[in-house]
Amino acid sequence: MTLSSIILLWKEEVPIKLVLLGDVGAGKSSLVLRFVKGQFVEFQESTIGAAFFSQTLAVNDATVKFEIWDTAGQERYHSLAPMYYRGAAAAIIVYDITNQEAQAYAQEHGLFFMETSAKTAANVNDVFYEIAKRLPRVQPVQNSAGMVLMDRPAERVASTSCCS
Ligand SMILES: Nc1nc2c(ncn2[C@@H]2O[C@H](COP(=O)(O)OP(=O)(O)OP(=O)(O)O)[C@@H](O)[C@H]2O)c(=O)[nH]1
């Protein structure tokens, strides 16, 4: 066995906690199932409590590991939501596309907006990719020329005076 055959390239996975929030039946589970398993079902069961999924994605030079919490939209589970969005790097607010006001709301609040379809898979991978790209930990390393040291103003040498 040659040395080169036993050298393994090890790349660190960047974990990203992401939460899906939105009304009951908005399509949260369908979006994540399309992303993670490539599946879509017409009659998706309503989520009870929350469900966890993970999926990796290559972004820039990094491998991002999404740790996804799919929350339940039913009113009775609303009090649980903070448990899932606490410490999350990003949240996807899922809404029914027939709700025309959502894009204007996103623009008004400076939020990233993208239309997706779990049914046709349109923009599903893209939305996760775009989120990962925007996170500081996944930004490409800047080609910096090094650290610039600022000159400090010369400290005045204390003069000793004596003997008036
Ligand atoms: N046409 C179409 N239907 C969708 C899409 N996404 C979800 N649906 C349908 O909408 C219904 C509800 O979707 P879910 O993914 O269960 O919604 P949810 O937000 O997870 O619902 P809760 O778990 O109850 O909060 C399902 O029957 C899906 O088939 C989509 O992109 N296009």
From TrEMBL:
It holds the Pfam family Ras. InterPro entries: P-loop_NTPase, Small_GTP-bd, Small_GTPase. SMART domains: RAB, RAS, RHO. The keyword Nucleotidyltransferase does not apply. GO terms for molecular function: GTP binding; GTPase activity. Gene3D superfamilies: P-loop containing nucleotide triphosphate hydrolases. Keywords: Nucleotide-binding. This is Uncharacterized protein.
